[in-house]
Sequence to fold (263 residues):
Amino acid sequence: MYLIFFLVSIIACTVGAICGIGGGVIIKPVLDATKVMGVDSISFLSGTTVLSMTVISVFKSVSKKEASIQWKIGTPLAIGAAIGGIIGKSVFQYAYVILKNEDTVGALQSFTLAVITIGTLIYTLQSHKIKTLNVSNIITVTAIGLALGLISAFLGIGGGPINIVVLSYFFSMATKKAAINSLYVIMFSQFTSFISTLLTASVPEFDILYLILMVIGGVAGGLIGGKINSKISEKGVDKLFIILMIFIILLNIYNTAEFLHLW
Fold:
């Protein structure tokens, strides 16, 4: 099982670095399907893995002066995401207290992610017909980042496809530029979520070897994905993004049914 967790992490983070979706949107539902540990433990491991991947991806891009990070937009987005990450973590913990059932929480996360991804897929397929915006007001940008951070922290996915849609629609970013800016935002939201978990002593139980292997996979995935992203075309990224969304939708529908014991 250790090997499975490592492979899932490196593959998800490689793809996540290419498309800018973080990797958690793949890691979380895939590992949920294994039923090896609770949804809270998987959420923490997924978020930590994604954090390691985004740090490497952003640092590598900036150090090579290849970054297309739009600092005036990306920074307030990231700050908002950081605040949203703390709120989202609290909402997740609150859901645990209210629902009092791990499977119900898992079903809620899976169903919400499936719905969001379906909306993202529809937008992506119809994007050529949609007129995009160029939001620049710092308060509005920060508020958008807060919403992204809240959603990603609650779902334990890092960022996911919704980041790309938001960056495309609100800021008229092309796919590859949206990818690096998405990773920049995810890095902030995951960092604050991670620190919040440590400060509130709410780290769930898990075998430390899983964490070590997943972080190694995240770093390796970030390096590999970054190299591929620099060589692949915009159309190539778009096609991979669509395939991933279909996979994520189907997997989360399956997980929702599993958590609710529908079969």
User: Anything to note?
Assistant: The mean pLDDT is 91. DSSP finds ten helices and no strands in the chain. The two ends are 24 Å apart (CA to CA).
